[in-house]
Design a protein that fits this description.
The protein is mainly α. It has one domain: Up-down Bundle (Formate dehydrogenase/DMSO reductase fold). The chain is built from 16 helices and 4 strands. The strands form 2 sheets. It has a two-stranded antiparallel sheet. The protein has a two-stranded antiparallel sheet with strand order 3-4. Helix 5 crosses helix 6. The longest helix is centred in the middle third of the chain and has 32 residues. The mean pLDDT is about 90.
């Protein structure tokens, strides 16, 4: 059985990890976006509603990050051993920021004189975690200096203009998702404010998408050849065309003040951006030269872990779907988190 699956196991695990990371970006993206917007909300009552809108589901959203990181360590240990030391600082910043953000959920509603400190912890924790994720993404796209099976670059190789650009771009993207979530979950003056923020965020996202899309092919000639050589340019043209169509649809949804469409269109834009990234880097799990097959663990290890993943992933999907169903609807002023 394992022998028959062995050639396909790296592909299966690449798909599982890619799915987990994508789910994390979508699910935690909008609640990090809410956190980034938090201190800029019109009133303190609005901040209460913003936090209440994500309080029941934020911790479930972050379980996808655990699955992605754990799956990478188990299925592609070589990639894990290279990526972790290469991105140690931004990943550490992300984890510390997420801790501050998580603690703020518990302390803010109980605090009195220190409430403003937990407001800052929630806001700056969300902002720092998002920026660190974007920086890590940019460093990943650029690739890592590897000799043999070891990372041989410096501790600050991740700190480049391109990675800082992707960090700012992800902040804009999460703000767009966060505004879309607030449009869906709130009403009145807070929803009006979210519509305005979403329009500004969409404009910023378009600028960053254009800059990253134009810059990425310059980083590696293979990426440029993949996108712009014939007939690839014809085969891959639906990606930018669909991106343009979704952007137009999102703008029209905001102008017409639709409540569900902005978040769904935002998800679509992230999905296409994620697809474009996968096309650019495939089949490397450690850019620029280590493929998923080179980094894969033994087939027996991947098969053993696959059994657990096939049990855990449906449970996670079911739990998250149930949570969203239970806490569906608008968040009102009398809603509370205790």
């Amino acid at each position: 059985m394992i022998d028959a699956l062995a050639p396909h196991l790296p592909l299966i695990w690449a798909a599982i990890i890619a799915f987990a990371v994508f789910m994390y970006v979508l699910m935690d993206g909008f609640d990090l976006g809410v956190g980034i917007l938090f201190r800029h909300a019109p009133t303190d009552s609005d901040r209460d509603r913003m936090m209440n809108s994500v309080a029941p589901i934020w911790d479930g959203n972050e379980t996808w990050l655990v699955l992605g990181g754990g799956g990478l360590m188990a299925a592609f240990p070589l990639a894990y051993a290279i990526i972790l030391p290469a991105l140690y600082i931004p990943l550490l910043v992300m984890l510390i920021a997420l801790i501050f953000r998580g603690v703020a959920f518990e302390f803010r509603f109980k605090a009195e004189t220190s409430r403003h400190l937990w407001d800052k912890a929630f806001h700056y924790g969300s902002l720092a975690a998002t920026f660190a994720q974007g920086v890590a993404l940019g460093a990943f796209i650029q690739g890592f200096e590897v000799t043999g099976r070891d990372f041989t670059g410096g501790a600050f190789d991740w700190a480049t203009p391109f990675s800082l650009l992707t960090g700012l771009g992800l902040v804009a993207g999460y703000v767009l998702l966060g505004a879309g979530w607030l449009i869906l979950k709130t009403d009145g003056a807070l929803q009006d404010w979210a519509f305005k923020i979403a329009k500004r965020a969409l404009a910023a996202v378009l600028v960053f998408v254009a800059l990253v899309s134009l810059t990425t092919p310059l980083l590696e000639s293979a990426i440029a050849a993949r996108w712009f050589s014939w007939p690839n340019i014809a085969y891959l043209s639906p990606v930018p065309l669909l991106t343009a169509a979704l952007t137009l649809g999102l703008w029209r949804a905001l102008v017409k003040r639709r409540e569900r469409a902005p978040l769904l269109y935002g998800f679509g834009l992230f999905a296409l951006s994620y697809l474009g990234l996968a096309i650019s880097l495939w089949p490397n799990v450690v850019p620029p030269n280590i493929s998923i097959w080179q980094a894969a663990s033994a087939p027996s290890s991947q098969a053993f872990m696959l059994v657990g993943a096939l049990l855990v992933v449906p449970v996670m999907l079911g739990y998250i779907a149930y949570s969203y169903w239970v806490f569906r609807g608008k968040v009102r002023d009398d809603s509370g988190y205790h």
